[in-house]
Amino acid sequence: MKPRYRVMVSDQQTEYTCRQDENLLSEALNQGIRAIKRGCLGGGCGFCKVRVESGRYELGKCSVKVLTPEEKERGYVLACRTKPLSDLMIRIEK
Ligand code: FES
């Protein structure tokens, strides 16, 4: 069984857990957390963009139209394409 990590949403004072082989958005939705905006669930719309403030993660394929290389460097990810590799602190910037 894959490890499960804590995901803290720093600006919403909420947290949930996410398995290493699941993405941050679907696990949030499964646990009734509506803090992250839901869109295509496929890395193409950018609605679920969040910033990782701390922790390690694996980012899957994303459209460069909605997540630029500069944003990636600054820690932005698409939650529907991100799997945790440690506990994470994320921020949802509207
Ligand atoms: S929900 Fe569309 S990019 Fe994540």
Please describe what this structure looks like.
With 94 residues, the protein is mainly β. It is 13% helix and 33% strand. The chain has helices at residues 24-30, 69-73; strands at residues 4-9, 14-19, 49-54, 57-59, 76-78, 82-84, 88-91. The radius of gyration is 12 Å and the shape is globular. The site of FE2/S2 (inorganic) cluster (FES) has 12 residues, from loops.
Task: List the topology elements.
Layout (H helix, E strand, L loop, with lengths): L3 E6 L4 E6 L4 H7 L18 E6 L2 E3 L9 H5 L2 E3 L3 E3 L3 E4 L3
Parallel strand pairs: 1-7
Antiparallel strand pairs: 1-2, 3-5, 3-7, 4-6
What's the multimeric state? single chain
> Count of DSSP helices?
2
Beta fraction: 25-35%
Total number of beta strands: 7
In short:
It contains 2 helices and 7 strands. The model has no long low-confidence stretch (mean pLDDT 95). The protein has 94 residues and is mainly beta.
Fill in the keyword field for this structure.
94 residues; mainly beta; five-stranded mixed beta sheet; 7 strands; 33% strand; binds FE2/S2 (inorganic) cluster
